[in-house]
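Ticket #336: bound-state structure for flavin-adenine dinucleotide.
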Amino acid sequence: MQIFQNFSLLNHNTFKIQVKTDFFIAIDSIDDYQHIFSENMLINKKKLFLGAGSNVLFTQNFAGYVIQSSENAIKIINEDNKFIWIECDSGLNWHHFVKFCVDNNFYGIENLAMIPGSIGAAPVQNIGAYGIEQSALFDSLIAFDFEKGTFVKLDKSQCDFGYRYSILKSHNMQNHFVVKVTYKLNKQFNPNLKYKELANYFAKNTSISAQNVFDAVCKIRKKKLPNPEILPNAGSFFKNPIIDEKKFLKISHLLPPNSYFKLDDGNYKISAANLIEYAGWKGYHYNNCGVYEKHSLILVNYNSSQGKELLNLAEKIINTISEKFNIEIEPEVVII
Ligand SMILES: Cc1cc2nc3c(=O)[nH]c(=O)nc-3n(C[C@H](O)[C@H](O)[C@H](O)COP(=O)(O)OP(=O)(O)OC[C@H]3O[C@@H](n4cnc5c(N)ncnc54)[C@H](O)[C@@H]3O)c2cc1C
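RESOLUTION: The complex was predicted; output attached.
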């Protein structure tokens, strides 16, 4: 373990915001968790668990301890004739894990290629794309409770996964650092082409492999999404709002065409991207930041923007959407 003081987070957030933390703890061994606990390092201190910083917006320096793990092992821990269970350390790069699975013919995860970030954050955010969320493959996780000094295991039913939500986001679990996550992959390939763009991509193909799907997802994503190394961003800044039927009937006349669909539970999911675009924000420049010209859900940092500038822009967008469509959109990005 290494501890750094007055540490720059510039290279630890994909918005490339210039902020510092009082302390940065870089964990590199499973023993470090107990060590940090027994030394009382975090008692009454503000703390932030950080992966690759690809879903956070820093709006100020962090007066406390940022904790990150670089442990990145992948281990096959069990298998039967249908499934294989793979345990990953939280510091492992998510895309690296997806590639490992595709290379080794472990299936089901290929649609989630190229999502930036770490394994540790994946269940916290319940990441998803192209018709699937990580919860579909999630088996269990081990977290360290920095309040009690113990490791706890959570299985899928305990995680309360929802759209970009898990129990780890709840107030009671804020002291739990995800240490390891186990995923259950299929041994047989069954392509998931529910997502329209993927279905269109493979419209003329009769034989599709997991590698094909992985490649297609990478290709589509490269075309659609800005590379944070070139144009700093944190992916979708806002979540798609979900409203009940009563609310939907009240506001449906305000919504742009094709901006919503009915979910199985009777609620309606509204495309925040459509609302933002319809409200005229797509491609908008605001000081040093703006709304990405090819995708209105993505806020970008054009030129050393301050986190507060991006937050101001986000608030302006939220207010217009509320005034125009009577819908409250919320950030997906974690504001710090
Ligand atoms: C270009 C781009 C495209 C993206 N596309 C998608 C997409 O398609 N789908 C999608 O769902 N997301 C997407 N994202 C968002 C992002 O990739 C995910 O949210 C990812 O899981 C964040 O991982 P991270 O390691 O960077 O987490 P961070 O940003 O570091 O942290 C995110 C949250 O998780 C918490 N956290 C991190 N690690 C741990 C840990 N070990 N234990 C406990 N809590 C922890 C943090 O405290 C914070 O609250 C995209 C982002 C970018 C930049």
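RESOLUTION NOTES: The pocket of flavin-adenine dinucleotide is lined by residues 14, 48-56, 90, 115-118, 120-122, 124-125, 127-129, 168, 177-178, 225, 228, 233-235, 334 (CB under 6 Å).
TICKET STATUS: resolved
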